[in-house]
Design brief:
By secondary structure, this protein is α+β, with helices and mostly antiparallel strands. The chain has one domain: NADH Oxidase. Helix content is 39%, strand content 14%. It has eight helices and six strands. The protein has a four-stranded antiparallel β-sheet with strand order 1-2-6-5. The longest helix has 22 residues. The mean pLDDT is 96.
């Protein structure tokens, strides 16, 4: 085993508990307004916002620091059209045969179906891939805890995009192999989630649903 190379931690501690509480409360209030959006505007969004949000996602912790993620940003109209066509095909199969009655019952309050116009309307689609293995020393090696690592990175990406004032949707048509094929990614990159990004449509509406209370999601022992 080689000795690790270490450096001093760059960490800024807040001056008081009240400042900590104020910061985390403001962040909660911001994120509590985040909603999944399915009605987008085609208004252009500066690519710099997308780049910085992805840089933020890239700061996520990962198993053995392997950073097993790839973010493919799609803005070409023809490519978005191909993705929509393939996604709607898979979604049609799901809504009309693959999904159980229980699953469909859960989706009913969201008002979703196989039609996905947002895949062409949103100015960007960010397709997140999970890298399953690498080949750095002449032999393939699996990435460790890649599912968990990419999940954390996606959460940070959504938070960064919301902080920038953009709307997002986590779209997971199943199966998603078509994304690998359309975007020319290798077999070692598995589609994880498809995220349309942009400004919400002026008349956008969202389902009237509630989040669980703190008592329902936290235990102190």
């Amino acid at each position: 085993m080689s000795n690790p190379v270490l450096k001093a931690l760059d960490f800024e501690r807040t001056t008081s508990e009240s400042e900590q509480i104020e910061r985390v409360t403001k962040f909660f209030e911001l994120m509590n307004r985040r909603r999944t959006v399915r009605e987008f505007s085609n208004e252009p969004v500066p690519i710099e916002i997308i780049e910085t949000a992805i840089r933020t996602a890239g700061t996520a912790p990962s198993g053995a620091n392997m950073q097993p993620w790839r973010f493919v940003v799609v803005r070409d109209p023809e490519t978005k059209a191909r993705i929509r066509e393939a996604a709607e095909h898979e979604e049609h199969e799901s809504y009309h045969g693959r999904m159980s009655k229980k699953w469909l019952r859960r989706l009913a309050p969201l008002g979703t179906d196989e039609h996905k116009p947002f895949l062409e309307i949103a100015p960007y689609l960010i397709v997140v891939f999970r890298i399953t293995s690498v080949n750095e020393s002449g032999e393939p090696e699996p990435t460790y805890y890649s599912q968990e690592s990419v999940g954390i990175a996606v959460g940070m990406l959504l938070a960064a995009l919301h902080t920038a004032g953009l709307a997002t949707l986590t779209h997971t048509p199943s199966p998603m192999k078509f994304l690998q094929e359309i975007l020319g990614r290798p077999k070692t990159e598995v589609p994880f989630v498809l995220i349309p990004v942009g400004y919400p449509a002026a008349d956008a509406k969202v389902p009237d649903i509630k989040r669980k209370s703190l008592n329902e999601i936290m235990n102190v022992v």
